[in-house]
Amino acid sequence: SHTDDASLTVTVDPALEAEGYRIDIDTQVRITVGSPSGARWAVQTLLQLLTPWVYGPGPLALKHLCLPKGVIVDAPHHSWRGAHLDVSRHFMPASFIMSFLDVLAVHKLNRLHLHLTDDQGWRLPVPGWPRLTTVGAWRPGTVRGH
Questions:
Q1: Are 23 and 11 in contact (CB under 8 A)?
Q2: What is the pTM of this model?
């Protein structure tokens, strides 16, 4: 049920793992985190508990923002959780990569590995490092059309 007294409090407890958190939900929402990273993952968990409409484009009626009562204690099993995009061979617009980052956050993945080069050489121009494309983009054994 809806209450105008709803609140969210966040506290840090260094005894928790750095990316760990505890969420207590009753009439209030209390989050205890080990670090700011834990807070980030706790927020993602709260979003997952809400209706999928929170990811939609438009305004969301307050009546749809209901959380179940309970306690959640969580911490990642592995410190490195990520995904890989091969942007060296498959060019993707920046807007796609930004959306992909949002999807990684929803799934609590914390690394994005971009495959920026392959055996044919460096393709991405980097200000201050012009030799990456003038020298590093070529090699004597480059197979044409490969």
A1: no
A2: 0.72
